[in-house]
Amino acid sequence: MTMASKNSPKPPQIDKNHSFWQSWQHAWNGLKTVVKEERNMQTHLVLGAVALLIGWAVHLTTSDWLWLCLAIFLVMLCEINNTIAENICDLVTGPHYHPLAKKVKDIAAGAVVFAAAFAVIVGLILFVPKLWPLVLAWTTKG
Ligand SMILES: Nc1ncnc2c1ncn2[C@@H]1O[C@H](COP(=O)(O)OP(=O)(O)OP(=O)(O)O)[C@@H](O)[C@H]1O
Predict the structure, then answer these.
(1) Is residue 93 within 6 Å of ligand 1 at its C-beta?
(2) Considering just the CA atoms, what is the radius of gyration of the chain in Å?
(3) In a domain, 18, yes or no
């Protein structure tokens, strides 16, 4: 090995991962990137955490927890896919308008809205029956 090759930085990896650990590290970096770079993902995380806290406060049943987790995970999964679609479009089109890029980005964003609508329905079904009596009791007390 020459002195130059010993001191030169490792080239960025473009071949396959060599171990489960390496695959996992790259996947974890991907998740961190979505959270760091996507404001909508940060909003989903905060709203998801609030829903989990309310669920804990109102003592959800096991099946309620499963529906709530499904709703939260679906929204995040769609947001991750939306980010993938946006990045691929930007990679292909660069700073130029393309009707197909618009189509792909709008459909991917639509999937997020679709999943969010499911989450709102799940939230209403789970929380309204538990919170409504508390609201009534609180308003009639005053
Ligand atoms: N290269 C392009 N060609 C055509 N339309 C584009 C292009 N880039 C963006 N758009 C349009 O602009 C919108 C915003 O694009 P952008 O990539 O900024 O998404 P974003 O603001 O991160 O969206 P989101 O709020 O869904 O995360 C897209 O939904 C699409 O309608």
Answers:
(1) yes
(2) 22
(3) no
